Each structure stands twice: as structure tokens, then as C-alpha cells.
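@channel sequence for tomorrow's demo:
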Amino acid sequence: MQLAHNSFVVVADGRKMMLLRNEGDAAYPNLEVVDVDAQDNPADRDQSSDRPGRSFQSFGLGHRSAYQETDFHQLEEDRFAAGMADILKQRALRGEFDALVVVAPPTTLGELRKHYHKAVTERLTGEVAKDLTGHPIDQIEQILISS
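C-alpha cells (generated this afternoon):
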């Protein structure tokens, strides 16, 4: 993948976002950290207190049903992705970048796509469906070059 000079690269998952700028050129990217945001999002078992509810039908054939339990961990990750999309929108409207590459796991990428503003999609030059938030920047550069 070619990264033009001054391109923004967002490396994110549902809990952490790194906003990077390519200070190098397309052949030799040099990603520099612009912003980092992270949230504490404990596992769902640590956030929920109850077991799923049950519904009983008192007449007829006596059907029983279990309600789907809310996954609070996933809800927080989805909110974080929506917040990232808003940050990208604000930066795009201020003209802070002309090209954008988003690197995120498939579920986070899907949630981000729901919230992209037109100003962001116009600048979006690539997406990579991988979780690279735990990788050092030099490895991220190499993975993007080979993508």
C-alpha cells in the first residue's frame, strides 16, 4: 500500500486508537504519533451482574424463552468506534489530512464504517482489517508497505 507524504493512518481496535502521520514518502514511510486515545473496558463478565432473564408463557403450550444478554463490553467498543469516527470527521472538516488509511480488526472496521462522515470517506484511501494496536510503529510501517 502506498502512503503519500502527510497521510494519516489510524491504528485502532475497540479500546485503543493511535493516529499517525506519514512524515516520510510513499516508498519509505515514517509514521509519527499525532494522538493516542485509550479507554478501560473490562470484560463483559466484570460489567454485568445478572444472568439473562427468562420469559414464561402462562397460557397455551407453556413456551419458555431466554432473553439475549446484553454484551456491555461490545457496546463500549462500539461506542469507542463511533467516537473515533467523530474525531476523524472533525479533523477532516478542519482539513488536517488529505488521505487516510484505517487499520482495525474486522468488527471495529465494520462499526467505524457505519459512522464515517462524507468528509472522511472522501479522504479514505485504504483499509486494512488487522489488529495492529499492540505492534511497534516500525512493524506497522512494514505491514502497510506489504499490504
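heads up for whoever presents: Residues 117 and 136 are 29 Å apart (CA to CA).
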